[in-house]
Design a protein that fits this description.
The chain is built from ten helices and 13 strands. The protein is an alpha/beta fold.
Length: 367
């Protein structure tokens, strides 16, 4: 079966969020469980607005304890240094051997701004414009090393071919970056970028830079409307809209039995809550909902946030995923090793290959 973006089977992802949990082994266990189900990736949310572990650091710990599943931390583009953000995401791609993603988010509150004390909170439109600039410069910095820039020639003592390092010379509205990066080009070329496009200000960022687009929708019609808008915008930016993987985001509560689903749940669809669209019912009805939205072309898959992480993820993998596999809608094994391969995404070409490179300068931070 071919999905609506032309890349094969259904895509599934899950959040491994555990508020106030700092024990790394707990996150490792959840990621391994999701990997056993063949999920494309797990996400770990992060925000300056509440206490919690650093998502990117936690998933760097999870990386060597897993082998195939993609690892996607939330990293804000507000109050953070773009050069450091891209280097950290590139490092996660290296330590996971090509399984890193980056959920791009902004920090909009005055409380978050006061943590840093450099500037006041800004409107959402301005923050997402900055996010686009950070996504742009990150790609340039990832490309600032050509794939074969490392030569490691012990005889001559040359580690890097400087003809294959590039300045990016980027000037944005709030920052500038010269480059090159201090981290070699990531294994995926560009780690996978994920954007929640539910709210209007984020949609241009999703259309221009996202590989995976999340949509929190309580109906198939709502999800399809956002998907169509983002795809149309991507086309205007010169992108192939089929290169966007659109996932519906649901909070799932699988604590009730199959026959205890509330009215309007099960195959009838989710209901709105303050935390987002919520499905409450059993794994079988959830499989029916996922299959219905996928087979009619509404979305390419689902991103699911368990209410009770361990309980609901177990029921998701052992029940819902198993049923979708039985119906031939979802994979039973990973056909590749990188997150891009899981999602059917090509490895991007290096935008600087063959252009004028860094010459005649000393780079004391060269690894």
């Amino acid at each position: 079966m071919t999905s609506s973006h032309g890349r094969g089977l259904l895509h599934l992802a899950a959040a491994v969020d555990q508020p106030a949990v700092y024990d790394a082994e707990s996150y490792v266990e959840l990621a391994r469980l999701a990997e056993r189900g063949g999920l494309d990736f797990v996400t770990l949310d992060d925000t300056f607005a509440r206490p919690g572990p650093d998502a990117l650091t936690v998933l760097s710990r999870v990386a060597p304890a897993t082998g195939r599943i993609g690892l996607v931390p939330t990293v804000t583009t507000t109050h953070t240094e773009p050069f450091h953000v891209q280097a950290a995401v590139a490092t996660l791609d290296w330590v996971s051997r090509g399984r890193a993603g980056w959920r791009i988010e902004v920090s909009a509150t005055e409380q978050e701004a006061r943590l840093f004390g450099r500037r006041r909170a800004a409107p959402a439109d301005a923050l997402w414009q900055e996010a686009r600039e950070v996504a742009d410069v990150a790609a340039k910095l990832w490309d600032s090393w050509e794939d074969d820039a490392e030569i490691r020639d012990a005889a001559t003592g040359r580690f890097i071919d400087r003809d294959k390092l590039h300045h990016v010379d980027f000037a944005g509205s709030a920052f500038s970056v010269k480059g090159p990066s201090i981290v070699p080009r990531p294994p995926q070329g560009h780690p996978v970028r994920v954007v929640d496009a539910t709210e209007g200000p984020a949609r241009q960022t999703a259309a221009e830079y996202a590989d995976v687009v999340l949509v929190r929708a309580v109906s198939a019609a709502h999800a399809a409307a956002v998907r169509d808008q983002v795809r149309d915008s991507a086309r205007e930016f010169g992108r192939n809209p089929d290169d966007l993987c659109v996932l519906a985001s649901l909070v799932v509560d699988l604590g009730d039995g199959e026959h205890a689903a509330e009215p309007g749940h099960g195959g009838g669809g989710p209901r709105p809550t303050g935390q987002g669209p919520l499905y409450r019912g059993g794994p079988v009805d959830l499989a029916e909902l996922i299959a219905a939205w996928y087979t009619d072309g509404t979305v390419d898959g689902f991103h699911l946030t368990p209410v009770e992480p361990r309980r609901d993820l177990e029921r998701l993998v052992n029940g819902t995923v198993a049923l979708l596999q039985y119906r031939g809608l979802f994979r039973t094994f990973y056909p590749g090793s990188t997150l891009r391969e899981h999602l059917g995404l090509a490895r991007p070409a290096n935008q600087y290959a063959g252009t004028h490179a860094v010459t005649g300068e000393r780079h004391d931070r060269t690894p």
